[in-house]
Amino acid sequence: MSAPVKCTTHPDELAGWQCRGDCKAYLCPKCTAQLVRLYTCCRCGGPAHRLSVPRRSKGLAHWIGVAIARPLKMFPMFALFVLLLGGIAFVDISSGTPEVHRIATIVKLALVTVYALFVVDAAAHGAPDSRTPLRVARALAAVLFVLAPGIVYAYFVGVPGAAAQHDHAMWLFGGLVVAYVPVALAVAVSEAPMASLMNPFTMFEVAWRLGRTYLGTLVVVAVLVAAAVSLATGGSASLKQSVPTPLVGDAVAAIPWLWSLGALAAMIGLLTYVHGDRFGWGHTAEYVEPLYPKMVALGARKLADRSSAAAGMTGEITRLDAAERADAGKLDDALRTENAARAIKLYEGRATWSAAAVDDRKLVAIARCAVRVKRLDLAERLLDDAVARKGRSCGQAMLALAQLHGDSLGNADRAAALYASIVEQFAGSDVAKVAAKKLAG
Ligand SMILES: [Zn+2]
Ligand SMILES: [Zn+2]
Question: Residue 295 CA: which ligand is closest?
Fold first, then answer.
């Protein structure tokens, strides 16, 4: 980054936003207003966006720090797993039978795997969301896919250190797994297609593309694995002795190595969080951080002037003449039967329509027909008209207009601004709920 950008209006203040409306100014907190998750420029009322930096512009050291702090960020989950692992260790040790020990080991392994996968996913997405369980299942499938040959081999031939003490093939396989699993997990939680998940060539290609980043991550992960293993075997024993209460001691002993495991899982998830676009997942523009994450918009929103257009239209009820009444009847039929092409033809068949024949509710319906027959210009005109009338369907019209801009005209900023004003003007209504959901998504 070169010299920080300053506010256009206040040259002494740092700019955290830029106007995307008419004035294109750089904006400080006082010059920016916030509504739900949308920012607007206080100078011209147009939409504003946060200035951001690519996540990858922050070095490996920064992300290692983030990974180490990650288990603390998910503290309730961390505490739950510490308690569970402590409880299992307690049952295991106090029973002392080999059967219980075997079951305890399997349960512990399963718990540790689930915990690690959840942390990978949370780190990859910033926080767990509703699709987390699905992605965790995908990650599990990806890992089992690569581990399956090893498990089969170990079952029939033996594990290194036991029956197959000097089995080079097994060690080679182990090395391959260590290099493969992190990238497989990172891709699995990225919602990339399932087919690429089961394709080792895709994985190695991604690892290759990440290059030094991946190598760096592998080294950090290896160090943390070593730390977790040594803490789980040696370190926890002394820690346990320092806490005399049995069950609490077992739980406390699990803290250091589970933390280490969480940090390494976060390290893997951060590959996706920082470099997901390089896996072909999402656009590079999404992999950014706010330039000043703690900056809060303080300005008051400037309202766009939208009173003049509608003046005179409302209240003025014209008596329909017979011809218009007949045309209106046909138009109603076309709308009722959802014959979009016919509705548009009938609507355009008359030079003018009185507000009594085509009210704002009908304008919205005709606009929907126009969208269906790909007459987007007409749809926009009709909806603008419907909004300007400020009738009972004004909210519906604004919602349809926002959808038209967002979904069909590729005008995301205008759509966002419209959703924001719907939320503001029709607070508590159904249209506001839909608009708020659109803004949040
Ligand atoms: Zn502006
Ligand atoms: Zn300013």
Answer: 2
Give 134-178 pLDDT, tens digit per residue.
Answer: 999 988 888 888 778 777 777 776 665 555 555 677 677 777 888
pLDDT of residue 76: 92
Q: CB of 253 within 8 A of CB of 108? A: no
What is the CA(25)–ligand 1 centre distance, in A?
6
> In terms of residue numbers, what domain contains 73?
59-287
Residue 310, in any domain of the structure: no
What CATH number does residue 374 fall under? 1.25.40.10
Dist. CA 336 → ligand 2 center (Å)? 52
Instruction: Specify whether 95 is located in the same domain as 31.
Output: no
Q: How far is the CA of 44 from the centre of ligand 1 (A)?
A: 4
The model carries a pTM of: 0.62
What is the Å distance from ligand 1's center to 18 Cα? 8
The angle formed by the CA atoms of residues 64, 66 and 71, to the nearest 5 degrees, is: 110
Q: What is the CA(49)–ligand 1 centre distance, in A?
A: 11
Q: What confidence score (pLDDT) does residue 263 get? A: 93
Tell me what pLDDT residue 235 has: 66
Q: Which ligand number lies closest to the CA of residue 30?
A: 2
> Is residue 325 within a helix (H) or strand (E), and if so which, with residue range?
helix 322-336
Mean pLDDT of 275-296: 83
Q: How far is CA 104 from CA 7, 80, 136, in A?
A: 61, 17, 23
pLDDT digits (tens, 9 = 90+) for 9-18: 999 999 999 9
Q: Residue with structure tokens 């509703």?
A: 130
Q: Where are the alpha helices (DSSP H) in 157-211?
A: 168-188, 194-197, 200-210
CA of 37 to the centre of ligand 2 (A): 20
Residue 136 lies in a domain: yes
Please check whether residues 78 and 198 belong to one and the same domain: yes
Whose atoms come closest to the Cα of 44: which ligand? 1
Q: Is residue 46 part of a domain?
A: yes
Q: Does residue 100 sit within a domain?
A: yes
Residues 163 and 280 in one domain: yes
Structural contact between residues 117 and 140, judged by C-beta atoms closer than 8 angstroms: yes
Distance 42 CA to ligand 2 centre (A): 9
Count up the domains in the chain and report the number: 3
Q: How high is the pLDDT of residue 105?
A: 86
Q: How far is the CA of 48 from the centre of ligand 1 (A)?
A: 7
Inter-residue contact 404 to 380 (CB < 8 Å): yes
Query: Residue 300 C-alpha to ligand 2 middle, in angstroms?
Result: 12
Regarding whether 77 and 31 lie in a shared domain, the answer is no
Q: Which of 277, 304, 331 is the last residue in one of the domains?
A: 304
Residue 52 Cα to ligand 2 middle (Å): 18
Same domain, 342 and 370: yes
295 and 357 belong to one structural domain: no
Query: Same domain for 282 and 299?
Result: no
Q: What is the mean pLDDT of the chain?
A: 83
Residue with tokens 């040259």: 11
pLDDT digits 0-9 by tens, 175-230: 788 888 888 888 888 877 777 777 878 888 888 888 888 889 889 988 888 888 88
